[in-house]
Give the backbone structure.
Amino acid sequence: MRAPVRAATAVVLLTALAGASPSLADPITFDDVPTDVYDTVSVGGAVFRAQNPIHSISVLAGVQNCIRCAENGTPYLSAWGYPPVGILMTTVSGDPFSLYEFDAAESFAVLPERWARRIDVIGQLAGGGMISTSFVLDRILDGIGGAEDFQRFTLPASFTMLSSVLFVGAGNTAVSEGLVFQDFAIDNIVTDLPAPIPEPATIGLLLTGLAIVRRRILKARASIH
């Protein structure tokens, strides 16, 4: 009699937790972040900031405030300006993480001379050391409608147990207003960051379910004796 009761307890626990938070590796997006210029953006358990403290990063959305910017239908994170801006990603908790995939694009359709030619991704390993890889951008960007502005990139399996990741635009040699820019944008970042802790209401529901199971256990034991 006890095995089924224990199984029922586990079912209640797992069901409550599953309904409380998204599965691992849900993409980190910027859909709920107001379009603006930021020093730091915290979302999905991750923290994004400009590599250099004197710079800022921007959350943009072509459908809202930039009709000739890169466009994928939702807000995204952009690094633009001079000197070129890198985006540093860490975690809110400080725990190591893995990076699997991300979407990336150039910046402004009307300023192709400012587009990065590639994105270098540099991972700082939690145990020490660094790894890196690069992804070439296709230079296809026309703003709202038309072609797909963003590309999907997959990281090597070695991008795990990371303490931080740096996204850097690189490869552009064109001169704009006497300067060389490396503008780019990222979105839909897939990691293994833990799901959020259940809300208090969900925890209350879980405890209620466990209380019901406990009463059933006591009744089952009483019927045996």
Notes: The chain has one domain: 24-196.
